[in-house]
C-alpha cells in the first residue's frame, strides 16, 4: 500500500482539481484497484473519526457526558464502513448509466473514479466530527466541495459536454443523498442511532482542463467553491516543497492543512476559556465548570463548558469553543454555509448570518428546549442549549458573553511560521 501516493492524490484533487482530473481520467485503473488502493483507505477516515467521537470522546449536554459503548461503537463502525463502500459502488453504477443522457460515454471504471475522487473532500472533511458541535459545519463544507469536484470531473471522466455537467452533477448529488438516507435508516435500525444561492454580476473564469474558459458567478455555489480550491493551492505547493526537501515535519504540517488544519495556530489555553463562563447567566447560577484543550487527527481545539440552573427545572449549558488550527476550515465553512429555515408544527430551526457572524438556532415547543449558537471571528463558537422558558433566554445567554472580547482574540496563538 503506497500511502505516499494516496496523500499525493488527496493533495492534488483538493488543491488543484482542474489539472488533476485530466490526469485521473487518463491513468489506467480497475474497479478492484481503485477500492484496494484508494477508496478503502480514504473512506475509512470519517468512519474512524465517528467511532473516536462516539465511543472514546463522547457527547456532552446539560452536564451529562455520554459514550456509545465500545462494542456497539465497533459494530456501528464496521457497518457504516461497509455501507459506505457499497454506496460508493452503487452511485458509480448509476453515474455510468446516466452518461448517455447527458451526452457522455459509459465507462464503469471512469464512473467509479468520479465518485471516489470527488468524495475525497467529503471523507476528509468528515474527520472534523470530533470537533464539539461544529464538526457538522466543516463536514458540510467538505460535502459541498465534493459537489464542485464532481462538476469538474464529469467532463473528463465521462466525456460529457461542459455545458451539461451542471445537470449531470445535480442528478448525481440527488441520487447520493437518497442513498445516504438509506444508509442512515439502516444504521438507525441496527444500532439505534436515531443551496447555496447568490447573485452578482462579478464573474470568475474556470478552466475546464481542455483549454476552454467557463464564466461563473463569483457569489454562486460554483464560484465560491472555485475560490476554495484556489486558496488550497498554497498548501499543495508547501507539501510538494517539503517532499522534495525531505522535511518530514513540513510534510505532516502541509497534509494537516490540506485536511483543513492550520499548523501555525495554537488554540487558547483552558484557563482563558474559563473566563468566558460567568458565575451567573440569564438569571441562573453556575454549577459544573470545565475547560480543556484537546488534539487528535491533526485537529486542536479548546472547549469550556458550564451548567446553569434556576433551581426550578430550567437549565442551560454554555459551551465556548476555540477551533484553533481549524480556523481556516471554519472560514471556508462559514463562507459556503447556506441560509436555511425549517418550520414544523412543534418548532423550528434555522441558520443565517447576522453582523458577519454565522448563527444557528432551534426550538422545540413540545419539549420546551432548544439551542442558540454563534460563530465569532470565524474561529470561536458560543453555544447555549437547554430548557429555559424560551429561545430568547438562550439568545440572552449567548449575547451575555463578551463576544467582542472573543473577536479581539482571533489572532492569539497565531505564529508567522
Task: Outline the structure in words.
- By secondary structure, the chain is α+β, with helices and mostly antiparallel strands.
- It folds into 2 domains: 241 residues, no CATH class; 139 residues.
- Helices cover 51% and strands 21% of the residues.
- It has 15 helices and 13 strands.
- The strands form 3 sheets. The protein has a 9-stranded antiparallel β-sheet with strand order 5-6-7-8-13-12-11-10-9. It has a two-stranded antiparallel ribbon with strand order 1-2. A two-stranded antiparallel ribbon has the order 3-4.
- The longest helix is centred in the N-terminal third of the chain and has 29 residues.
- The protein is globular and about 65 Å long.
- The two termini are 33 Å apart.
- About 11% of the residues have low confidence.
Amino acid at each position: 500500500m503506497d500511502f505516499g501516493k494516496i496523500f499525493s492524490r488527496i493533495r492534488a484533487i483538493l488543491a488543484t482539481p482542474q489539472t488533476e482530473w485530466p490526469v485521473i481520467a487518463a491513468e489506467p485503473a480497475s474497479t478492484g484497484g481503485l477500492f484496494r488502493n484508494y477508496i478503502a483507505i480514504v473512506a475509512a477516515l470519517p468512519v474512524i473519526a465517528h467511532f473516536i467521537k462516539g465511543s472514546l470522546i463522547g457527547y456532552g449536554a446539560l452536564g451529562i457526558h455520554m459514550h456509545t459503548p465500545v462494542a456497539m461503537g465497533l459494530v456501528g463502525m464496521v457497518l457504516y464502513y461497509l455501507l459506505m463502500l457499497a454506496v460508493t459502488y452503487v452511485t458509480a453504477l448509476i453515474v455510468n448509466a446516466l452518461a448517455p443522457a447527458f451526452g457522455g460515454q459509459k465507462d464503469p471504471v471512469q464512473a467509479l473514479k468520479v465518485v471516489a475522487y470527488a468524495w475525497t473532500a467529503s471523507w476528509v472533511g468528515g474527520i472534523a466530527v470530533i470537533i464539539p458541535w461544529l464538526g457538522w459545519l466543516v463536514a458540510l463544507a467538505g460535502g459541498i466541495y465534493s459537489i464542485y469536484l464532481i462538476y469538474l470531473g464529469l467532463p473528463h471522466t465521462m466525456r460529457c459536454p461542459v455545458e451539461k455537467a451542471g445537470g449531470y452533477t445535480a442528478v448525481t448529488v440527488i441520487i447520493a443523498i437518497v442513498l445516504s438516507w438509506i444508509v442512515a435508516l439502516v444504521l438507525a435500525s441496527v444500532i439505534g442511532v436515531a443551496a447555496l444561492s447568490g447573485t452578482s454580476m462579478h464573474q470568475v473564469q474556470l478552466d475546464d482542463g481542455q483549454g476552454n474558459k467557463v464564466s461563473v458567478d463569483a457569489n454562486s455555489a460554483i464560484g465560491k467553491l472555485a475560490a476554495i480550491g484556489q486558496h488550497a493551492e498554497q498548501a499543495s505547493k508547501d507539501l510538494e516543497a517539503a517532499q522534495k526537501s525531505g522535511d518530514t515535519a513540513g510534510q505532516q504540517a502541509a497534509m494537516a492543512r490540506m485536511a483543513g488544519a492550520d499548523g501555525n495556530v495554537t488554540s487558547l489555553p483552558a484557563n482563558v476559556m474559563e473566563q468566558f463562563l460567568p458565575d451567573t447567566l440569564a438569571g441562573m447560577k453556575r454549577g459544573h465548570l470545565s475547560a480543556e484543550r484537546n488534539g487528535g487527527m491533526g485537529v486542536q481545539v479548546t472547549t469550556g463548558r458550564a451548567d446553569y440552573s434556576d433551581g426550578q427545572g430550567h437549565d442551560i449549558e454554555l459551551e465556548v469553543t476555540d477551533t484553533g488550527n481549524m480556523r481556516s476550515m471554519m472560514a471556508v465553512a462559514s463562507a459556503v454555509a447556506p441560509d436555511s429555515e425549517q418550520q414544523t408544527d412543534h418548532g423550528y430551526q434555522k441558520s443565517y448570518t447576522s453582523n458577519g457572524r454565522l448563527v444557528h438556532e432551534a426550538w422545540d415547543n413540545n419539549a420546551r428546549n432548544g439551542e442558540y449558537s454563534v460563530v465569532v471571528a470565524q474561529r470561536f463558537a458560543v453555544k447555549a442549549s437547554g430548557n429555559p422558558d424560551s429561545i430568547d433566554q438562550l439568545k440572552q445567554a449567548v449575547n451575555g458573553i463578551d463576544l467582542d472580547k472573543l473577536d479581539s482574540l482571533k489572532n492569539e496563538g497565531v505564529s508567522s511560521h
